[in-house]
Amino acid sequence: MTARVNGAVKSEMTSERASDARKSVIAAIEKQSKDKTGLRSDVVTLHQGGAYHLYRYKRYDDVRLVFAPEQQIAFYGGDPDNFEYPRFDLDICLFRVYENGQPAKIDNYLKFNPRGPADGELTFVSGHPGKTDRQLTVDELADMRDRELPRILTMFKRREVLLHSFGERTFENERRVRDDFFGLQNNRKRYDGYLAGLLDPKIWQALQAREQKLRDAISGDPKLKSTTGAYDRIKNAQAEIAKNARVYNYFEMERPRFSVYRQPRAFYSTLFKYARLLVRAADERAKPNGERFEEFRDSARESLELELFSTEPVYDDVELLALTDSFTDLASAFGASDPLVKMVLGDKSLVERASELIKGTHLKDVAFRKKLYAGGKAALEAAHDPMIDIAIAIDSTGRQTKKVVETQGEIKQQAYAEIAKARFATEGTNSYPDATFTLRLSYGRVRGYEENGKQIPAFTNFAGLYERAEEHENKPPFDLPQRWIDKKDKLALTTPFNFVSDADIIGGNSGSPVVNQAGEFVGIIFDGNIQSLVLDCIFTDKQARAVSVDSAAILEALRNVYDAQPLVDELSSAK
Question: Are the C-beta atoms of residues 414 and 9 closer than 8 Å to each other?
Answer without folding.
Answer: yes
